[in-house]
Amino acid sequence: MAIINAPRGTRDILPSESWKWAYIINMASQTMKDFGFSEVHLPIFEHTELFSRGVGETTDIVEKEMYTFNDRGGRSITLRPEATAGVVRATLENNLCVQGASAKLWSWGPMFRHERPQKGRYRQFYQIDAECLGIAGAGADVEIISLTIELFRRLGLKNLEVVINSVGCEKCRPVYRQKLIEYFEGHKDELCETCLTRLDRNPLRILDCKNESCGHVADNAPDIYDSLCDECREHFAEVRKGLERLGFSYRLNKRLVRGLDYYTKTAYEILSGDLGSQNAVAGGGRYDNLASSIGGPKVPGVGFACGVDRVMIVMEEQGCSFGKMPAVDVYVAALGDDSRGAVQVLTYELRKNNIAAECDTSGKSFKAQMKAVGSCKFACIIGTDEIANHSVSVKNLQDGLQETIAYDDVTEYIKSRV
Ligand code: HAM
Description:
About 35% of the residues lie in helices and about 20% in strands. By secondary structure, it is an alpha+beta fold. An eight-stranded mixed sheet has the order 1-5-6-11-10-9-7-8, sandwiched between helices. The protein has a five-stranded mixed sheet with strand order 13-12-14-15-16. It is built from 15 helices and 16 strands. The radius of gyration is 28 Å and the shape is elongated. A hairpin with a 5-residue loop joins strand 15 and strand 16 (about 400-405). It folds into two domains: about 15-170 and about 230-320, 2-Layer Sandwich (BirA Bifunctional Protein, domain 2), CATH 3.30.930; about 330-415, Rossmann fold, CATH 3.40.50.800. Histidyl-adenosine monophosphate binds near residues 113, 259, 283, 303 and 306.
């Protein structure tokens, strides 16, 4: 019978990689703390309407990428394709933003989208996500963008590009939408099939179509900046001023729309040249109507998510440091079968004292045990002599010197040397 493999688009994060993941998550955790964000753990599945209403019926995510199924109670459930809708739901459900209060929340974990797998694109992928809820002013947008940039700075990522845009609000977007429909109607023969279907339903998405011909048409489309209402125009100017004050450079891209319908005003992405076609390491923006679209009051919000899988690829490609690979410091070896019990006792004693220690439990010969010491700093050897003398032979594996240490002193001896 053939072995059952993992589903397409998923992958196993094995020990050779998992410690690097831990490094990235720890760095995120520290950065979030420094920016005043608190960690939350939210469900991986939610009611399907949270995403259809929150992310938007006409988005690719809701139309064709969600893992949706009926549970045993007949309710439609979806594996989260992104984190924002869930964070907003949790904020409303737990009254975190009542009476003008704001909440700064972050989380990380797996997301699920049924996309065509390729480099940097998986069906189960991981995001680090941060959301700031309850603040309408541009200062929150600047804080979120600076948080993204700071996280990547700490991780050592180079050659990133910050791209920003304003996608307007419920007051000015309908006017812009109409202008776009009129413009694209006149260029129907140059649009790809997907964009033809977007024409009436979501014409803004035509702007960021990757198809070359659509791109040419989109380049000459009416400019969103000419349609922004005063409030959106001022907000965008404030965001730009704030970024400049912090010394960040960015590129304006009037065609940046992003694939989620909840955005209002600011939308941004951080791009890397080291990723091929899936070049966004992070994306985010403001979503002032998301809370009301899922049945809550109007709670403004702004946030971002970065793809851990993609950050990992870029860090590997750029030779970034992941810190030190965790290693066991001490190998405790049994010289003869009679000391195997004592070896396990000493190993546990060391571990209780926060010393990373390893011993053989599979019955390996002494020679094989000594081959398994790997990058350990010390080998503690216990044979019948050591048991009789209540001692341990401690070999420093760096200089090869061996000493006999009283059993009761060995933990302190090692502790002061690792
Ligand atoms: P998004 O642009 O869909 O935004 O995803 C954010 C990041 O997740 C992307 O820039 C990319 O790094 C990573 N990503 C997305 N799809 C995949 C995939 N299939 N495989 C690997 N990585 C992927 C959001 O999800 C929004 N919720 C961000 C946000 C938070 N906006 C406001 N708050």
